[in-house]
Please model this.
Amino acid sequence: MAGLEGKTAIVTGASSGIGAAIVGALRREGALVAGGARRAERIEADHALELDVTDLESCERFVSEAVERLGGLDVLVNAAGLALGRDPFWESTEDDERAVLETNVNGLIRITRLCLAHLRDGGHIVNIGSVAGRQAYEKGSLYVTSKFAVRGFTYALREDLLGRPIRLTTVDPGLVETDFSRVRFRGDEDQARTVYAGVEAMTPDDIADCVLFALTRPPHVNVDELVVKALAQSSGGRILRST
Ligand code: NAP
Model:
């Protein structure tokens, strides 16, 4: 197993949930980590930096500062993302569509492009996709669209990287209990709670474990994709609840 001692990593979406857990896991394995998010004050990394993935200047500033502070780059984890609303598509708005696609798709692509210029040989990119990027569910059209795009981008980039010593993985989780639903329902705690009611969801640490697994395979092994769901779910839309 290849360890992470002495490796350097950038993690986006580091202020909460899955990204925050990944920062913790990487640091416990000996990596030096720069985390980025808009709420930088919440980030517990070696370097906590402000980042808005929807803003090109913010991304450029973040990547150059992170790489300078880390002294190079071995690992990029793209975890920043969000959904807005759980409504039929005809209730969708221009603003929500822009926010979801700019964050989940353009933001991830932008950060990847900027980081690739610095990624050392033996480097690794991990995208946090979703089961929503593999199978559609009702009333989630923009989020589903964005995560299908992430999967498309991951596989297109895999083609372009072929022949270069850089590995690429998509980790596609199902139900994970984080602030994701609080954001999706715009702060409505009751609605957010119903998402996790009567089912044992996965934890952010469960997903961080998957990321660590992919990162610590021998250098000649590329884990292309890891799909993980709560035991009581078979898709983003089908969840067995005890209540
Ligand atoms: P979360 O707790 O709400 O965390 C989302 C993270 O994304 C936060 O750190 C947030 O930071 C960051 N973020 C959002 N917009 C950003 C922007 N414009 N610029 C920079 N950072 C931004 O939700 P989570 O569940 O951990 O989500 C992390 C990833 O996992 C997302 O890509 C999500 O789609 C994916 N995912 C989640 C689940 C689930 O069930 N929870 C399942 C499958 C996939 P700031 O708000 O501080 O900027």
